[in-house]
Structures are given as C-alpha cells and as structure tokens.
Amino acid sequence: MKRAWTDRLVSPTTGSVLELDPVRIADDEVVEGFLVSRDEREVWPIVAGVAVLPHDLGAHLGAQGSVYRRSPINDPRLARFLLGRAGTGYVVVPFDEVVAQYRDLARDPPEGYDTTPDPEHVALAALAGTIGAQGTGVVVGSGVGRGVFALGTRLEAVLGFDRSIACVRRARNIAVTVEDFFLPAPKGSGMKEIPLDFAPLTRTAADFALADAEALPLADEAVDLLVLYPGDSLGRWPDADAAWREARRVTRVGGHVLWHEALDAEGLPAPIATEGPWRAVARA
Q: Could you list the residue range(s) of the whole structural domain that residue 21 is in?
C-alpha cells in the first residue's frame, strides 16, 4: 500500500489516528506491517501490500482465512498474528468478473473473442469527466478493480475498498504486476490463455484495501470524490443507509458522490449529471 494512503487511514471502529509500524517497504509501498491505534490498543495488518481494515477483524479473518493461509508472509510477527487468527473460511475471485472487466485489454485475441469494453466502467469514466473530477477518490465496492483504474485517468490517486480479500489482492496484482497477465481462452479457440496489455490502464494512481462500506477507515471529508457501488464481491451492502452515510462523511464539501442507479431511493438529492447507470451529486 502506498505511504500516501497509509497516512490518511483511521480506525474503522472509532476513527482514531493509526500509526504505521512498517515491516517491509519497497519504494513507496508498504508491503508488510501493522497499522496501530494506540487509543484502542488495536492493530490492523498490511499483508502483500494490502491494508486489512474491516470493522471486525476477527470475524473477517475467520470467514476468509483460506487466502491468508495461502499468502507468502515474510515477517514472523505478521505470520503469527494472521495465522493464529485465520479460520477455515473460503473466498475466491469471481473470474467471470475479471474476464468481463478486462477482456478489452486482450492482446492478439482469437477470432471472435469479445473485446468490448465493460460499458459500466466506460460510463463511470465519462461521468467523472462531465463533472470535472479532480484530486483524490475512493471507490467503495471496487471488486477486481476496473472502476478504480477508470478513474485513475482523471484523479491524482484512487483507493478501492472491497470486503473480499481475494478480489482486493487480485486488483492490487493488476496494479503492480510487471509480468504478463492472462485470461482463460474460450474452449475451441486453440489457445490456452490470452495475454493482456496493461498499457491503456493508468495504474500508478490506483491502490486497494479491505474495508466495509458501513465503516470506512477514512477521516471526515478525506477525499474529493467517492463512488458507491450497490455492493461488492461479497454481495449487496448489509446496510445501504449506513453505506450512504459513510459516503457523505468521507467526501469533502464541494466534492462529488457518484452512485449506481441500483442504490436509487427516496430522499436522495437530485443528480447534477448522469451517465449510463451512474448518477452524480455535489456534496453539500
């Protein structure tokens, strides 16, 4: 995780300041370490470059422990912390989501392969342009990450939050990998895998972390733009009203909140602009 974002993160339970206890740093990335709340005497881990900040860390590690048990962890303190709490819960990347969101980047695809860009993310980038989005942004419900990359063409830095550690890890790998990345080839195509060309992605602006929409680990008015999906890789938000309150809380006055039409509800402000399934409103 980039140092610039670790300096902005707060406790997801009380909002108290978090101090970074780095274990392994590469360039400006914290690869392993801890985020420490001295007020609560609680810690949240950073593993494989991902800050893990759910509101209930114990429940999360129990429910998604399979990913941590398979993760290469260099620091013995971090290994003891995670593996001593990791349960047998199993979570995987929905690979059809990866294919749908990244198929347009296929390099030398077989004849007939669908390289149509995901229209939802094309519309998201277009709406960000319409409202003149600038500064820093957050995508809540980032899944495997394409929405974060879509905003990276306009914003200085974009942080994606999701509740699935498998998807957050996948998205981060797309952001930092320097090796070839592959999608499965369709049966009968004569190819085993299809390589992707990441050159069209603005990856330097992207970062990813694990958090709950109802308890975002950011201070009040921390970002200029927030995108709220109706859910993430684990499904719909358990409490959509709480997700909306958090979206408003962490967006600065004068910034923008963008939301998916699936979250439309009575009492929401009238959008100042729309594009495809997305609506935008200025944060008052």
A: 3-83
